[in-house]
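Field notebook, page 661. I keep forgetting to write these up properly, so this time I am using the form the group agreed on. The chain and the ligand, adenosine-5'-monophosphate-propyl ester, are recorded exactly as supplied. Prediction of the bound pose follows.
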Amino acid sequence: MATDHERIEPAAEAATIENLLREERTFAPPAAFVAAATAHDPDIYARTATDEGFRAFWAQEAKRIDWIEPWTELLDWQLPYAKWFVGGKLNISANCLDRHVANGLGGKVAYYWEGEPGDSRTLTYAQLLEETCRMANALRSLGVKKGDKVAIYMPMIPELPIAMLACARIGAPHSVVFGGFSADALAGRIDDAQCTTVITADGGYRKGAAVHLKASADDAMNRSPSVKHCVVVRRTGDPVDWNPDRDHWWHELTAAQPTTAEPEPMDSEDLLYLLYTSGTTAKPKGIMHTTGGYLVGTATTHRLIFDIKPEDVYWCMADIGWVTGHSYIVYGPLANATTGIIYEGAIDFPEKDRWAQIAAKYRATILYTAPTAIRALMKYGHDEFARDDLSSLRLLGSVGEPINPEAWAWYWKYIGGERCPVVDTWWQTETGMILITPLPGITTTKPGSATFPFPGIKAGVVDEAGNSVPLGGGGYLVLERPWPAMLRGIYGDHDRYVETYWSRYPGRYFAGDGCKRDDEGYYWLLGRVDDVMNVSGHRISTTEVESALVSHPAVAEAAVVGRTDPITGQAIFSYVILRSGFEASDALGADLREHVSEVIGKLARPKQIMFTPDLPKTRSGKIMRRLLRDVAEQRALGDVTTLADAGIVATIREQSGRGED
Ligand code: PRX
């Protein structure tokens, strides 16, 4: 079978990497870096370890932001709900914009924006504030008010952060839906939150083609009676359908608006946004993030982990549609008055070194990306970007999935030129902020390890029964103390919130990730332990893909597992039982993959579909995914004694390999 695995050439650095592993090399922060580091005192860990110290730390950090009214209580922790900075009033957009302009930073660049076709825009803090105010006024003119939910479905253009900041300014929680999601996925999210307004664009560019977002948004809105208004940015200029009772062009609506807008005073615990993430059931969870704690948590972690200095040019390469973009392109960096880069398109388009050209053009100093991107660049080889000057870089970050030591070492050597510390940051949509990470001026790193909990974060590794696993052993990652940017629940579903995060180990947050600690206490994340796949750093639920497959008329039953993939971390492997009257064929396989892509989005398209007459089930009828994973990974099979029909596994194994993408 011609798997992707065989097509990948071995990395040129294989010898070095083996060497690295054999030597168990460690990377102490370079002396020059330590000398200038924002966080340089290792005592920060001891200071924040006690309950008092941790409270003092966050109380101190909260002084860095502007409060309209001061908070009176740092933390009100009534399991499983935390309230932070109780009684405080603030506005996030004012903290991200007005305050910097008032401090004389109006002329500082907030974002360098680069479109995929090569167009570009520079927005200063003063301009970003004006644009945000115009849009805030525009939303108010449509009747959008505090508490109304606004769905944002946009390409990576400046209007995306502007839309978010405008919502934050008027107190309307936003729900950003990644532009790669389908109309169905958008409709489900609009409906769950009963969004009254949708902000979108005619389209955006990706790999040279225009993605027609307005068409998908129309499809979704036609099924969503809660939507009264839609604001559309003209990006591609392609024709769009228009509903004059509902649709407004962004440029027309904002043109005549005043460039100032009163920020709504928000309570610390008022909802800032919803962001949907996959769980183990088909229905995505609307993760709730509030105002005060989220801002303090993201600003502090951004400043200390990325060692932010006033002159930095920081590039987080994620899409704003994911939590990484919310916390570390928009809110954290803007709160710290950082200059950032936003890029619209694919990092390897039109040339494989497009990303490096952009980094060189703006003299980027900090790069934050995902292992899947690093592996893709590694596959191209470092010669591809030899012509680009990356000497401005001084710090590298990784997020989204475990980074294999091989990719870490390559990142450090070829992108970082052996001089930039690498911060491997572990966190989740739910955690809102980075929780396990090196501090680049303090921590000695080990390739593949996210190292230690951030100061004040109390993490642990426990066994099935909840007992702490001694150093050297593996188990489940738990968090034992609240943190400011933690989720405040699942929108409209208290029971699911309790069940998902707080019931497995009462009193402790269950992250759903496996983790081991080495003898020195370094944390090594081991991936998800639930039925959630991680494809290119994005969580996709097996159930969601199965539901999408079963919604195709040819499919009777489907089971989906993640299979290790050299580039995307995991790839989606689907087993499909057809309804009678349908014949397995390559064409049908292609059709099913396209179907999933339409129902959920391209990122959920299965890499492989295998047609099978039956599935391995326990006698109680539960599909044995563990076996399917073993088959997909071509591993020796585990225990098969509980199978209802042992023959089926042999049949599946024989067939595996057909129907490859
Ligand atoms: O499994 C972990 C993995 O990504 C999951 C969270 O996914 P999501 O909510 O989409 O947020 C991704 C960006 C924050 C985690 O449960 N993950 C994230 N970062 C790392 C990681 N696994 C290992 N190492 C990381 N640095």
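OBSERVATIONS:
- The two ends are 11 Å apart (CA to CA).
- The chain has two domains: 2-17+532-658, 31-517.
FOLLOW-UP: compare against the apo run.
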